[in-house]
Amino acid sequence: MNDFTSWPASQYAEPISVPDGLRLSQDAKPQLENWWGQRWLEIVKKANIGVRLERGRFYATRGQVCSLALIKGRVEALVQGAHIDPYRVIVAVPAVPVDCWRAVIGEIATESSVAAQLFSRVLPDDFETLCRQAGNFSLFPESGSDFHTKCTCPDWSNPCKHIAAVHFHMAEEFDRDPFLLLRFRGLDREEFVWELETLSRLQADAARVSGGAGPSARESEAPWLDSDIETESDCCPSSGENTGRAGDSGGGQIAGALPGQNCPAPERFWEGLPVSGRVVNDWTQLPGVAALPESLGRFPFWRSRFPFLATIRSAYLTAPTFAREFVTGKQHQTRQEVDDLEAAD
User: Fold this and answer.
1) CB atoms < 10 A from the CB of 118, how many?
2) In what order do the strands lie in the sheet with 74-79?
3) Residue 187 CB-density burial (10 A; 0-12 exposed, 13-18 middle, 19+ buried)
4) Contact 33, 297 (CB under 8 A)
5) CA–CA distance, 271 with 230 (Å, rounded to integer)
6) Which of 98, 102, 103, 110 is nearest to 206 (CA)?
7) Which residues, listed in sequence order, are joined to residue 74 by a DSSP beta bridge?
8) Of 93, 102, 209, 304, which one is least surrounded by beta carbons within 10 A?
9) Residues 321-341 pLDDT 10s
């Protein structure tokens, strides 16, 4: 692979700024948390593209990637360079055949802990070995030569800095969600779930036919999902059922509602109901801040200069105060007090 480390700095043209371009979540070197994201960058570094790798990191951090689409076996992106028109970048690898993935999923169906880790966005340490042994394929490209890359820029080197920038984004997104890596290698999350449930049902049926003892069919079909499923009686009590919850005497009242607050007719839903003084007077700031976004992790392909979680946490902290002011018509906290609350969290 050719290099141009001896070129003078004057040969580098300043790229055109992209205000809403895709940016790495870290201002400096990307801090990949997981082994599969780190492995992807290791493979890219083996291409030995010299300073183009650092220039690609600079492009990815600065937000020069205008768009990025990931499909099975292929990533297409637009990267803004010094030319007025963005360069088109393609990164492709051969998709793993369906039968190979089906063999891997067959092994996963017998080990529910593996599926549970995947649904938690964790790629098990031995997953690469599982792919080799059960599916007879390598989860990661063996070397940089296994990539099929193309860029419309005039650089004679392949990979160029624009391709390197796309690789940095791919590594960060794979690190965030390993199902994106599986999609790139030919397996969508939806296909994985469907195949896994189908194989689990077949195994449960086979166990019942053979008369062998073991988990029930319901437990065998998707044991990794049981803890997340609510039955209809758990979440949607009937109008005549008394749930025993505070403020609910049956007769169609909202579960957990205040006395006298019956369910409105559907056509009057958006008209709202009077706000009880009890709601306003008992107002408290919940201890948890942005629990749902925190559990989901980094926002994919974030385009702002400011980190997503830090931005959304600020909104979570200020929204309750502004909502109370809107309901009561009174200002309960100054902006400085809200800023102090955010700084103390």
Assistant:
1) 21
2) 65-71, 74-79, 87-92, 148-151
3) buried
4) no
5) 30
6) 110
7) 71, 92
8) 209
9) 777 776 666 655 555 555 665
The answer to whether residues 62 and 21 touch, using CB atoms and an 8 Å cutoff, is yes
Q: pTM higher than 0.85 for the full model?
A: no
- Expressed in percent and rounded to 5, the helix, strand and coil fractions of the chain are 50, 10, 45
Residues 6+ apart with CB under 8 A from 273: 261, 264
| CA dist., res. 334 & res. 326, Å (int) | 14
Of residues 104, 209, 229, the one with CA closest to residue 217: 209
Between CA 59 and CA 169 the distance in angstroms is: 10
Cβ-Cβ contacts under 8 Å for 221 (sequence gap 6 or more)? 197, 200, 201, 204
Under DSSP, the state recorded for 253 is B
Q: Render pLDDT for 150-175 as a digit per residue (tens, 0 to 9).
A: 999 998 888 899 999 999 999 999 99
Q: Where are the alpha helices (DSSP H) in the chain?
A: 35-45, 51-62, 98-109, 112-119, 127-130, 161-176, 178-184, 189-210, 217-221, 232-235, 277-281, 291-296, 308-328, 335-344
